[in-house]
Amino acid sequence: MTGDSLAYAAPGWLPGGHLQTIWPALFSRRVQGAPVAFTRERRTTPDGDFVDIDWLTGSDALAAAGAPLLVLFHGLEGSSRSHYAQAFAGFARQQGLAYAVPHFRGCSGEINLAPRAYHSGDHEEVGWMLAGIAARHRAQGGGDVVAVGVSLGGNALLRWAEEAGDSAAQTVRAVAAVCSPLDLAAGGAHIGQGLNRQIYTRMFLRTMKPKALAKLAQHPGLFDRARLLAARDLYEFDDVFTGPLHGFAGVDDYWRRASAKPHLASIRIPALALNALNDPFVPAASLPRPGEVGPHVTLWQPAHGGHVGFAGGGWPGHVADMPQSVGRWLLQHVSAVTPRAIAAAGAPGAPQSDHG
Q1: Correct CATH for 17-183+267-345 of 3.60.150.10, 3.40.630.30, 3.40.50.720, 3.40.50.1820
Q2: The three-state (H, E, C) secondary structure of the chain, written as one string
Q3: Per the confidence metrics, is the pTM higher than 0.90?
Q4: Which residues are known to be catalytic?
Q5: For position 7, what pLDDT does the model report?
Q6: Domain assignments of the chain as residue spans, ordered by start
Q7: Per-residue pLDDT for 349 more than 80?
């Protein structure tokens, strides 16, 4: 994958969707140079809870210099420590951008206070976080704002753009979704079968169940403990916990109403949806086709890449290519990074746009 192309060629030493998913997340190089550093901000939510936002250190100075801001919404059980969040931070640092990673509730390392958690269609929470982050950035003199969501975070971000319609442009200039399950029922069924069930479902439930039980200890009677303990896949977990907790009738109602795919034609700002056709989480047959999206939506669907993998280079590889391509696509839609911002970041040059 390059900045001016949709093509991605997986390294010969990394064949198949499973290896292209697992290896980059665990072993590939995330950033060039020094590790990225974050400064944490805590904000009180309208319901008296809190969310934690990790800002790339130096973002305030960049905003004061007029730099654009890149906001990243992480995936299921992700955080600013996730490999893709670190890789996008490296891209932001290189390009002289301010950068923020808001954490969905329960994902910043500390249990939240209110009963609610987070879910794949959480467009209201995304909208609240985006508005506050953009306002803070602009109050400091910062430039345009763009946002990217990964996996669950990408579906939620697109749902926000769909619901916001024309008003989305008041907050951000463009959005991108990376490896997002835009049809949640298809993705949920796919991850609950065969090898996917043995690897990924078990991995997610290993952290999601304890978090749910901690929430039950905070709020006794919130859900059926026995049913949660018996859940063996995401369908059963979402049916007892995620769906009812967030106002849905159950998992089927949740997955139907939270999916971004049926509403992509409603988006009124530039939006990119990147999905590898060999993603173990997202069946290729469920992906939107050009005739199913509106004129503002761009589809990138390379044959390889796995789930948020897209490793490049020689062994053990790096994960810089995807953030470079997605980031440069987003930067097509913002004003140029100012020379002051580039100097403040110590970046080697201005961002390149891909107009191909």
Answers
A1: 3.40.50.1820
A2: CCCCCCCCCCCCCCCCHHHHHHHHHHCCECCCCCCCCEEEEEEECCCCCEEEEEEECCHHHHHHCCCCEEEEECCCCCCCCCHHHHHHHHHHHHHCCEEEEECCCCCCCCCCCCCCCCCCCCHHHHHHHHHHHHHHHHHCCCCCEEEEEECHHHHHHHHHHHHHHHHHHHCCCEEEEECCCCCHHHHHHHHCCHHHHHHHHHHHHHHHHHHHHHHHHHCCCCCCHHHHHHCCCHHHHHHHHHHHHCCCCCHHHHHHHHCCHHHHHHCCCCEEEECCCCCCCCCHHHCCCHHHCCCCEEEECCCCCCCCCCCECCCCCECCHHHHHHHHHHHCCCCCCCHHHHHHHCCCCCCCCCCC
A3: yes
A4: 151, 279, 307
A5: 74
A6: 17-183+267-345, 184-258
A7: no
